[in-house]
Amino acid sequence: MLLEKINSPADLKKLPLSQLPLLAQEIRQRIIEVVSSSGGHIASSLGAVELIIALHYCLNAPQDKIIFDVGHQAYAHKILTGRNKNFSTLRQFGGISGFPSRDESEYDCFTTGHSSNAVSLAMGLVCARDYNLEQYRVAAVIGDGSLSGGPCFEGLNNAGHLKKDVLIVLNTNELSIAPNVGAISTYLNKLISLPVYNRFKASLESFATQRLPRGSRLVKLANKFEEGLKGLFVPGMLFEELGFRYFGPFDGNDVELLINRLKNILTIRAPLLVHVITKKGKGYLPSENEPVKFHGISPFEIETGDALAAKKIETYTDVFGKEMVSLGAKRKELVAITAAMPEGTGLDKFRDAYPKRFFDVGIAEAHAVSFAAGLARSGLVPVVAVYSTFLQRAYDQIVEDVCLQNLAVVLAVDRAGIVGEDGITHQGIFDIAFLRHIPNLVLMAPKDADEFRAMLEFALNLKKPVAIRYPRSACPAASSPIPGIELGKPEIIKKGKDFAIIALGSMVEQAAQAIMILEKSDLKGALINARFVKPLDKTILQGIAREYKYVFTIEEGVLDAGFGSAVEEVLEKTVTRIGLPSEFVVHGKRNLLLEKYGLTANGIVNKIKEVVH
Ligand SMILES: Cc1ncc(C[n+]2csc(CCOP(=O)(O)OP(=O)(O)O)c2C)c(N)n1
Fold first, then answer.
1. Does ligand 1 have an atom closer than 6 angstroms to the CB of 118?
2. 410 and 435 in contact (C-beta within 8 Å)?
3. Domain ranges in the chain?
4. Region 316-469: CATH code
5. CA of 409 to the centre of ligand 1 (A)
6. Which CATH number fits domain 491-611: 3.40.30.10, 3.40.50.920, 3.30.1450.10, 3.40.50.2300?
7. Which of 359, 427, 368, 425 lies closest to 396 in space, CA to CA?
8. Is 280 one of the annotated active-site residues of the chain?
9. Residues 231, 240: contact at Cβ < 8 Å?
């Protein structure tokens, strides 16, 4: 095994070029084996193996910096930079992170997970390097999906203007998670399929390889000639116009070719954009055939690619996806928006049922929210489904374009709370804190499927900005007959004597179990389902505070500026708040992390026993 001998890029460089395709195969095998049991971003990582080998072969990391946009494609980078042995702990608590992590390795310049920021990060490094008169190369690797995100264009715009030595590698595979959408994607496809340029390229290549002596200066000149001339052939030359020297498109799964090209290109010190085409899921048939399913996957059987998960449970996302379809049938004004996550958010069903009322705007959360404001301003009722962590990108648009205008936009905030294995960059734990202070916005959280459906209907009728947050978890099926939802009013599920718990959304079920456990120790608790974070019904809350000596709040989010704080503000007195500390929460199974932070029935029992005398 070649891989066994490689603990750093220096070891990699000891291998001759001719052995690198075999190494790529071994890395693929390792990725498939590990991800089949840990789950993870297999398709993107398989596609980028040769590209990562080539970059480490030609650059000198960690002195040279390589930044992976999102970072979900960087498994080969982890394997080549001393983490092969531990790679089997991928995404497990205490194990290797699924994304680049500064805590994990000096080869990871940034802890990443959100897309479209690599060019900006690179430009910051480059300017600091030049200011400090240091000498190293900086490379940013970005996918064609991530290129569609606004921050990437801001970075490119700045890079072309600064004219500094930086390498941007654009990895095109025609997919984001779902097939790419948007004008830029169409442009890139044109670029890679342009017949005149490709014919020219092919004839130049055969001239160089067949008529000229191998490795001669003339071959090198021919390469340079091709690189120089193609500007005349490639239409638009968007990147050249932006101030980059554009090279490609190259076959990004041909490691020898890539290294030869990169070596040449890296002799130039300028804003460089190297465009490679890779096959998402390369080398593992099930993921080549179904790259969308294999973008991010839970454990699977290697032979078939079938998921190992026992039985399918209905998640909050499933409930949302189905309910959007039935609401769509009743309401012609309902439209749905996703930022490149139709499957993840469950909106794929709405897309299939009502294609004209569905918008996938690409990885562009900020745009999605302003776009929704435009739709709402014209009388449509948009639902923007977005993961809590990615909604962070759209804070200003929520404030200015939706809430300030008091427009009827519904934000379906999925993955709110602990998301589990995707880890530190993906936990949806800040949304309560960054939403609950915005005027006009109503913020809710359902405890089960029936209530979720009722909340959606309520939100669509409200004609105001509404956010509904729900977790990445199984959704309890149904409540006893649901009392109608009234703005700001909680649901009193159970009366008690010794204490009261006001629980939010996903935590209602845990709180109910905790109360049952405590009854065995003769402690009788009341259970209140908050339903709303904002507004809160002051009279009802004050009544609860009068009736019970001990009041607890519980939420799946950070405590700072969270739901419990909101209750305290309304009551103007302190309660015992249970939730997450204000810290970044690492990767691990959701249940394990909930347990760690005391957000399980037992955790709640312990806390209540500590406080109630
Ligand atoms: C701000 C943000 N929105 C959404 C995502 C979710 N996401 C992760 S990877 C990805 C697709 C990236 O596509 P591309 O850059 O083409 O990489 P590929 O997976 O195709 O290699 C998306 C939408 C994210 N990581 N960050």
1. no
2. no
3. 3-194+234-289, 316-469, 491-611
4. 3.40.50.970
5. 24
6. 3.40.50.920
7. 368
8. yes
9. yes
Strands (E), 316-436: 334-338, 358-360, 381-387, 410-414
Catalytic residue, candidates 261, 349, 357, 393: 393
Q: Is 595 a catalytic residue?
A: no
Using one digit for the tens of pLDDT, what is the confidence trace for 473-520?
999 987 667 768 999 999 999 999 999 999 999 999 999 999 999 999
Query: What's the token pair of residue 607?
Result: 């806390």
425 CB within 6 A, ligand 1? no
Catalytic residue from among 279, 280, 415, 577: 280
Kind and range of the H or E run holding 21: helix 20-38
Does 316-469 match 491-611 in CATH topology? yes
Taking the centre of ligand 1 as the mean of its atom positions, its distance from the CA of residue 176, in whole angstroms, is: 6
The rounded Å distance from CA 177 to ligand 1 centre is 6
Q: What is the three-class DSSP state of 458? A: helix
Helix (H, G, I), strand (E, B) or coil at 228: helix
**Mean pLDDT along residues 538-565:** 97
Cα dihedral value 183, 393, 44, 297, nearest 10: -120
Model confidence band, residue 235 (pLDDT cutoffs 50, 70, 90): very low
What does the pLDDT read at residue 191?
67
**Is 393 labeled as catalytic in the residue annotation?**
yes
- CATH architecture of residue range(s) 3-194+234-289: 3-Layer(aba) Sandwich (3.40)
The one-letter amino acid at 544: I
